[in-house]
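Example A, followed by Example B.
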Amino acid sequence: MILGNSLATLYAVFYAGTAVLTVGLGYWVLSRTEMGSRRWFGLLMGLLSFWALVSFVGVFVPDRQLQELLLTVWTVVGLSTVFAWLAFVVDYTDGDPLESRLVRVFALACLGLVAVAVTLPFHDLYYSSVLFRTEPFAHVETTVGPGRVAALGYTFSGVGLGTYYLLELFVSTRYRSRTQALVLVAGIVLGILPFTASLVGVTPVPTYNHTVFGIATFVLVVTYAVFRHSFADFAPIARDIVVAEIEDPLFIIDSDTHLVDYNDAAGRAVRGLDSHSIGTPVSALVDGLSEFDPGEEGPEMVSLTVDGESRHYSVQVSEVTARPSPRGYLILLRDITEQTIRERELEAARQELERSNERLEEFASVVSHDLRNPLNVASLRLDMAQREVDSDHLDTVDRAHDRIESLVEDLLLLARSGTGVDEQTRLSLATVADDCWQTVETADATLRSSVSSRSVQTPPGSSNCSRTCSGTRSTTARQT
């Protein structure tokens, strides 16, 4: 008889289809995806499926007591579903339900309301009255009691807060979870229409609670989001103010290196980057990342043209984990243009110094060989001449050779030390004169100095100046 009632049959088929669809979707997400919040989603789908199943059984139960028992189960499952929804949304929007104070508050509220609901046969706190109806099929009609009012507040608050979190994600991100969040919000809004219609009595059976009809709408919308907008492929990344204000380009990609989000700095750095770029491989968007592979060691630096100026960026890649496995990557480009310019300038200076050193080494080689070889020959010939002839002129030549040798040593020292003639130090003339006077043969000559307060600039190392002064003093002493 019940099956002969077309409306009852329609309701039963609808509930059965909803239960099967919900179980299938929950199983698929749990077993075939790695969405970080899949466990909470699976719990939500399980409760929705059981809620639809209870409603399905209720269509076929003609007994009043069994209908009241099913009402208790139906109420408990409905309250639990609201909690599971809020916990899932918190987890999906990159929170931790177990650490969320809000989720804990709703858990306590849910437990309190469930405690009232399971004792329905003994009081009228939840429903002020429960009437058994037989047309068009067996069901119970309830009127709102104090507990039901509290449950309505709990339900609207939980659904509203979850929707708010999704809307917040919707307005704060560019990537495809924006579409996912919008689809979920649409599913919630459409899903609560049967619940609202039941409250005001605008339904085919005014005395029957049609809330569960919203489950099918919600599940169908979520199914669309799963298969059309990759709802389960990549858990959203919270875009708090810290991320939004990062001044360096930041790209968020999925495990297949497709772009899923970016900050404003990235939009300025990469020409043509906009919301239509979402889903495009990052290698096709950013020059220098054409061969980017998360499993391989990527490029250390990329160069981009920003406002007509070439800018250089270091590449930092971080793994994004969505409990428990990696789901994507963050690519942060640090602007190192000034550092790169300084490094290039230092490298150019180093190369110029190397070339200068090579020229100095070449000069030192010329001084060491091309000057010393003739000097050695001259010194050898002088020794031979001094053994054959005793002449003061030969002694003068010998001293000249010594001076040339000293000059060669100074030139080699200058060339090999790399100092220039413009790198000077200040010396006291009186001190240099006294030092030089002690190193030359002066016979009975004496030194009188009137330069005690004067100084001169000389190249580093006083040997050059000292040799000059020594030579001058020696010559003067011999000629006086």
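Example B, a separate protein, is given below in the same form.
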Amino acid sequence: MQDFIVLAENNRALHLMDMKYRERHFKRMAQGTCDSNYASSLFIDILTTLVRIGGHAC
């Protein structure tokens, strides 16, 4: 049971980091400091992939 609790906490932490990084990225886009639409799309794709990998690990 302890292992499940640790996995659930890690999964929650991963999702919180994902939300934090997305929010920061969208702020950069709104401020105009993110110049490339391609880089912006790539950043979001990488975050999505990392969350999916984390989900499979749990």
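On Example B: The radius of gyration is 14 Å.
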